[in-house]
Amino acid sequence: MDKAAARRIFDSFLEQKEKAIGQPLACFDDNVERIGGGWAFRYQGRAWVETRNMDDLSGFLVGHGPVVVLDTGEVLEGGSLDRDPNEIVRRHSASL
Fold it and tell me: Could you tell me which of 81, 76, 82 has the C-alpha nearest to residue 95?
């Protein structure tokens, strides 16, 4: 899967997440990376992503990790302890 296709899937995930938590979100576009089996995306509250201003920290989220869009189109959401998106993929593969 190419980056553009993975981004469309991620954007759909982000829209659903925004509705669930009631807060606008944004992707860290400069931190998208190709990993084994997919693409890793990171996100945060939109105001904070856009400004990085301390006044916008009220929109700062905690407790979430990277989101991996596998080449199959499946979305894996990491938690706050997931620093390495490859580990999310390995854990998922081991559970199959």
Answer: 76
Distances (CA, A) of 8 to 4, 12, 14, 56, 63: 6, 6, 10, 27, 24
pTM beyond 0.85: the answer is yes
Residue 32: pLDDT band (50, 70, 90) is very high
Identify whether the C-beta of residue 73 lies closer than 8 Å to the C-beta of residue 92: no
Q: How many residues does the chain have?
A: 96
Rounded Cα–Cα distance for residues 64 and 15 (Å)? 16
- On whether the CB atoms of residues 46 and 59 are closer than 8 A, the answer is yes
Q: What is the mean pLDDT of residues 42-60?
A: 80
Q: What mean pLDDT do residues 22-43 have?
A: 93
